[in-house]
Amino acid sequence: MKNKLKYLPTFLFLAFVFVLSALFIVLPKSEYSSSEKRYLEKFPETNFETIVNGKFESGFESYLADHFPFRNAWVGINAYYNYSIGNNGNDGVYICKDNYLINEPVSEDNRIENNAQAIADFSKNVDVPVTVTIAPSTGYVMNNVLPAVHDSYNDDKMFETIMFQLYKENSGTISFVDLRDAFKKEAEKGTQLYYRTDHHWTTEGAYTAYKELCNKLNIKATPKNEFDIENYKGFYGTTYSTSGFWLTPADDIQVWNNKNNSEKNITVTITEGDESKTYHNLYFLNHLKEDDKYPVFLDGNHAVVNIKNKNIKDGKVLIVKDSFCHSLAPFLADNFNTVTMVDMRYYKNSISDMVKEGNYDQVLFVYGIDNLATDSDLVWIK
Amino acid sequence: MVFSRGIFLFAYLPAVLLIYYLVPRKARNIFLFFANLVFYGWGEPIMVLLMLVSIVINYIGGYFVEKFKPDKGKAKIPLVLTIIADIGILAFFKYIGLLISTLNLLPFLNLPIIEVSLPIGISFYTFQTMSYVIDVYRDDAPVSKSLINFGTYVALFPQLIAGPIVRYKDVSEQIQHRTETLEQFNKGVKLFLVGLAKKVIIADQMGAMWSNMLATTSPNGILGNWVGITGYTLQIYFDFSGYSDMACGLGNMLGFEFLKNFNYPYISKSITEFWRRWHISLSTWFREYVYIPLGGNRKGVPRQIINLLIVWFCTGLWHGASYNFILWGMYYGIILIIEKFVLRKLLDKLPSAIQHLYTIFIFMLGWVIFYFEDMGEMGSFIVSLFTLENGIISQQALTITLHNLPLIIVAIIASTPLGATLYNKVKDRNYIWILESVYTLAVMIIVVAAIINQSYSPFLYFRF
Predict the structure, then answer these.
(1) DSSP β-bridge partners for residue A304
(2) Pick the catalytic residue: B177, B319, B356, B403?
C-alpha cells in the first residue's frame, strides 16, 4: 500500500491533465462569454495554408483558452490567489472594504489635457452656454474603503487640469460644475454614490450630481420625495467581471420614477445611424432580467438619444456624454422639454451643426473622469 | 510551443504521452521524431525545414567523419566543413542584422538591411549538432547509423528550444536503448512540477513586477530601481532554471536522463563559482569545444587570458545579437580573469557574508547589462542605482514593491537549497505522499488558473 501511494502525486498530475483535456473535447462550447461581454473564439479554419502561416495554431490556442473547462472558475481562483499573496489589484481592480471592487487609478500619462482642450475649443464654435461636469472616480471619493497599499488617485490634479484648460481662454461662455466636495460630503454621510461592483455612480450618485448641476444652471431640482424609488437586486457590473472576485455580493440597482411622468408625457427616441425607435419610458426594465443590467438606464449606449417631456414647456439641452449620463439624463428630463444625448464614440458628425439646426439653448458635457482621461473620440468634436 | 501554455499541457503533452506508451518500443523514436517536429513547427512550420536541413547536414558530416577517421587529417575535412555549415546557418539567421548594421557604420558602406526572423531554439540545437560531429571525430561517441535516431536527438522536444544543451555523447546510448520505468516517470513528474511552479508562479510574476517598475510615470528612486532589478534577477533565474527543470522532467517521463543545468547559482561566493552553477550545460560546452581546443591553460598565462576572453566574447554573443550581450560576456570574462589571478586569495580571507554580497552585486549588475539593449538606457539605469537624486523610493514604486514583497521573499528563499534540504529530510517518511499530493494539486491549480487568466506569456530564453 505504502509503495503504491508514493505514485499518487504522479497519478494526480496525469489525472489533472487528462481529465481536463478530455472535458475540453467533450463539453459543449458556449458561443458567448457574458462576464467578458464578447463572443468566444470559433474553431479555426483548418487547411494547409492556415497551418503553414500559423493562423491555425494561434487560432487553436485562443480556442482552447476560450473554451477551457470551468474557465470562469480558474479566473476566480487566480484573482483570489493573487489577493492572498498580497498582490491586490493584479488585474486592475482592488478588492476593498465593504465589498467594493474599485478600478485602479488611470495612468498619469493620459489624455485629460487634450480632451479638456477639445471641449474648450468646441465652446468657441457655439453661441450657447456650455457646462461641463465630471464624475470623480470611485477610488477618489471612497478612499476610506481602499486597501492599505494602493496607487494614488490623482483626481485633484486632473480636475485642476480640466479647469485650467476650460477657463484659460474663455470668458463667461463655459462653466464647470465641480462635484468633488458635494460627493465627499454625501459619501461621509454614508450615501452610496457608486456601485460596489461597477465603475458607474449609482442613481443616488447621479441625483447628487443633478442637484449640483441645477444649482449652477439656476433651475429647481426635483426633490427626492417626489420619486418612487424601486430597488432591483442582482446587479454585477464591470469591476466585478474584470476582477474575477466572484464571491462579491451583487449590487442593488435603483430606479427613481418621478410620479408626474407617464407614457403620456415622455417620448424617448433612440437613433442609431438611419434607424430610429420610439419608446415612452425612461427606464428599460426588461434589461434587468439580463446579465448586463446597466442598460436599464435609457437602453445603454447609442449614438443619439432624444428625450421629450410634454409637461415642460421649454428648454432644449444637448449633452455630449459617456455612459455616466444615462442615469443622470432622466432627472434632467424633468427640467427641460428636450434632452438630447450624443455619444462621440458612435456619432461622427458635427455637434455644433446639431446645436444650431436643433435650436438648442445649451450644451452639457458629462463624463466619468477615467473615461475622460482615456477617451480618444472627444478630440474629434467639431 | 512552450511548456507553460494550455496548448502544451492540455493537448500536446497528453497526446504525446499516450501515444508514446501505446506504440511498441521500437517505434518510439520514430514517433518522437515526428512529435518533435510538431512541437517545433507549431506556429512557424516553415522553420521545421531549416532544422531538417541542419539535421541532414550533420548526419552526413558525421557519416564522413566516421568513414575517414582512420586518417585523422582526412577526417578533419568533413568535420571543419560541417562546423562551418552549422556556424554559417546560425550566423545568417541570428547575426546577419547585427553584422550589416555594424558594417554600415563604416562611412563608405551602405548595405541593404536583410530581415530574417530568428528560428526558435537555433542557438541550442546548433550547439547540439556541433557536439555530435566533434564527439564522433574525437571518438567520444559512436556515429549514429540511423537518421531518425539522430533527428530525434537534435529535435528532442524537452530541451529543443531552451536547453539544456545536451551533448551527443551524454545521450547517444539513451537514444538507442532506454528503458522507461515508473520510478523515473515519477521523478520526472516531480521535476516538471518544480519547473512549472518556478516559471509560472515566480518568474512570470517577478517579470510583471519588473516591467511595471520600468513603466512608471515618475522616477522610481534608488531603492525602487534596486527592487526592480531584484525582480529581473529573480525572473531570469526562475524562468530559465524552471524551463530546464521542466525539460529534465519531461525527459525523465520519456525515459531520458539529462544532466543538471542549474545548481543554485545565487548562493555562490564568487563569480567563478557562479558560472559553475549557472547554465552548466553551456559553460561545459564552451569549455569542451572551445576553451580546451584553444589550449586552455596549458600554453602559459598570456595565452590563457586570451582564450578566456575569446570564450566569454562568444558566450556573450551566443545570448543575443546585440552589443549589450557582448558587453555582458566581456564583463564576466574580465571579472573571471581578475578573480583567477588576483582576487581569489583575497576573497577567501573575507567573511562569507562579504563574499556573497560581492557576488550578488556583480551578477545583479550583470543582469542590468543583459537587459538593456540600448546603451543610453543602460547607462542611466546604472547611474540611478547609485545616486539619490530621484529620492529613495517613489509612491508608485513603493506600491509595486509592497504588492510583490511576499513573493520576492519566497523567491529569494526558493533560490537557495533550503527547500531541497527540508524535502530530503522528510522524503522517506510514510506520509510524504500526502505532502507531495497536496503540492501537486496546489501547483496545478495555481498554474492553470494563471495560464487561463493570462493565456499569454512570452518566454525569456525563447529567441536565443
Answers:
(1) A271, A342
(2) B319
Q: Which residues contact A325 (CB under 8 A, 6 or more apart)?
A: A319, A341, A366
Q: Would B462 be classed as within a structural domain?
A: no
B424 and B306, same domain (yes or no): yes
B98/B188 same-domain check: no
Measured between beta carbons, which residues in chain A are less than 8 angstroms from residue B190? 9-10
Find, among B275, B38, B36, B303, the residue nearest to B156 by Cα: B36
Please check whether residue B1 lies inside any domain of the structure: no
Q: Domain map of chain A by residue range?
A: 2-69, 93-380
Min Cα distance B453 → chain A (Å) is 5
Q: Are residues B170 and B196 in the same domain?
A: no
Has residue B360 been placed in a domain? yes
ipTM score here? 0.88
- Using a CB-CB cut-off of 8 Å, the residues of chain B touching A13 are 189, 192-193, 440, 444
Residues B193 and B235 in one domain: yes
CB atoms inside a 10 Å sphere around CB A93: 24
Where does a domain end: B178, B202, B237?
B178
Segment 185-214 of chain B within 8 Å of chain A by CB: 185-186, 189-190, 192-193, 205
3-state secondary structure of A364: strand
Instruction: Determine the Cα–Cα distance for residues B57 and A179; give it in Å rounded to an integer.
Output: 74
Please tell me the total count of domains within chain B: 2
B64 lies in which domain range? 6-178
* pLDDT tens per residue across all 464 residues of chain B: 888 888 999 999 999 999 999 999 888 999 999 999 999 988 788 889 999 999 999 999 999 998 888 888 888 899 999 999 999 999 988 888 888 888 888 888 777 777 777 888 889 999 999 999 999 998 888 888 889 989 999 988 888 878 788 888 888 888 888 888 999 999 999 999 999 999 999 999 999 999 999 988 888 999 999 999 999 999 999 999 999 999 999 999 999 999 899 999 999 999 999 999 999 999 999 999 999 988 888 888 899 999 999 999 999 999 988 899 999 999 999 999 999 988 888 888 899 999 999 999 999 999 999 999 999 999 999 999 999 988 999 999 999 999 999 999 999 999 999 999 999 998 888 888 899 999 999 999 999 999 988 753 333 333 33
End-to-end Cα distance, chain A:
80
Element (H, E) at A33: strand A32-33
Which residue in B307, B240, B312 sits closest to B272, CA to CA?
Answer: B312
In this structure, the answer to whether residues B354 and B448 fall within a common structural domain is yes
Q: Which of A5, A149, A244 sits opposite B403 (nearest CB)?
A: A149
Q: Residue A379 in 3-state DSSP?
A: helix
Q: Residue B212: count other Cβ atoms within 10 Å of its Cβ.
A: 17
The size of the A-B interface in CB pairs under 8 A is 125
* Contact list, A108 vs chain B (CB under 8 Å): 217-218
Q: How distant, in Å, are the alpha carbons of A153, A295, A304 from that of A194?
A: 16, 16, 25
> Based on the domain organization, do B207 and B303 belong to the same domain?
yes
Domain boundary among B152, B178, B204: B178
Q: How far apart are CA B64 and CA A340, in angstroms?
A: 84
Same domain, B173 and B293: no
402-441 of B, contacting A, C-beta below 8 A: 402-407, 430, 432-433, 436-437, 439-441
pTM above 0.95, yes or no: no
* B32 and B106 both lie in a single domain: yes
